[in-house]
Amino acid sequence: MKKYSEIQILSINDIKINIKIQKKNYQKMKFDQVLNFKKNFVKIKIFRRYIAKLKTELNKKINDNKSEK
């Protein structure tokens, strides 16, 4: 996982790809938790927050591009 300053440097397409990858990882962790394979409550919370950071930065970049036009 990247720091917020590293996320800001990424392009819109890179952020979208990163969101897809992190969502898949998050869903896998949630599924494993339900089946009691792993109990990683903290990691699940971190994944959720990281996905939210990515989405926030993506929306900022999209809105900036719209306002520039």
From TrEMBL:
Name of a matching Pfam family: Ribosomal_L29
InterPro entries: Ribosomal_uL29 (IPR001854), Ribosomal_uL29_sf (IPR036049)
The keyword Ribosomal protein is assigned to this record: yes
DNA-binding listed as a keyword: no
Domain of life from the UniProt record: Bacteria
Gene Ontology cellular-component annotations: ribosome
Keyword entries, A-Z: Ribonucleoprotein, Ribosomal protein
Family: Belongs to the universal ribosomal protein uL29 family.
Name recorded for this polypeptide: Large ribosomal subunit protein uL29
